[in-house]
Amino acid sequence: MVFEMKIIKQQIWLIVGAAALLTATFTLGYVVGNRSQMPLVETANALTSTDMQHAFGSAKTPEPFAEHAPQKQESASMSLSGLVAGLEKKVAANPGNIDQQLLLAQTYNELDNRAKSLGLLRSLNKQAPKHVQVKITLATVLMTGTDKQELKDALALFDNAIKLKPDVASMARIYQGEIRVKLDNLSK
Fold it and tell me: Range of 175's domain?
């Protein structure tokens, strides 16, 4: 009986220790993950004067942040253009890599270069007509516009994506509903 109690105590300690280790691992991951995000000072630099006025009641940027704001914005835009240029070089070096081309098209779209994004996505759709992610990405970019034909094309692309991969049906149907509402509003 005493021997069994020792085993039970050891098992309990193992469970408690495992739970503590899991908690510590999660906490460490959370702390390290948060450190990789932008520090508070850099976040404040990204605020506009209107944001600052709303938050602090004054349109004036606080002095510790003001001296670094233009410099941070310049370096951010330079790094973005460098990032896009690097991605363009990778795509040019390996034109058969659809995933890299998709990433480039999405990057163009995020940087408000919709025309470049659509051009690349349409080309990819012709190049890989059975690639579901290409169809979905093209459709989601098309649905951000107000051109009726683009919206109808997006509806068809979602239908094609569903035929190729039925697992995407629920997500695609939600987007199609948004497109139909948009088309209905444009008809009024």
Answer: 78-188
Query: Number of folded domains in the chain?
Result: 1
DSSP 131: -
Distance, CA of 141 to CA of 147 (rounded, Å): 12
Contact yes or no for 158/126 (Cβ under 8 A)? no
Dihedral angle sign, alpha carbons of residues 143, 147, 152, 154: negative
Q: What is the CATH number of the domain that holds 100?
A: 1.25.40.10
Distance CA 58, CA 119 (A): 44
SS (H, E, C) 156-175: HHHHHHHHHCHHHHHHHHHH
Average pLDDT, consecutive stretches of 10 residues, N- to C-terminus, the chain (188 residues) = 63 65 58 46 40 41 46 58 85 92 92 94 96 96 96 97 96 96 93
For residue 84, tell me if it sits in a domain: yes
How many other C-beta atoms lie within 10 A of the C-beta of residue 126?
A: 9
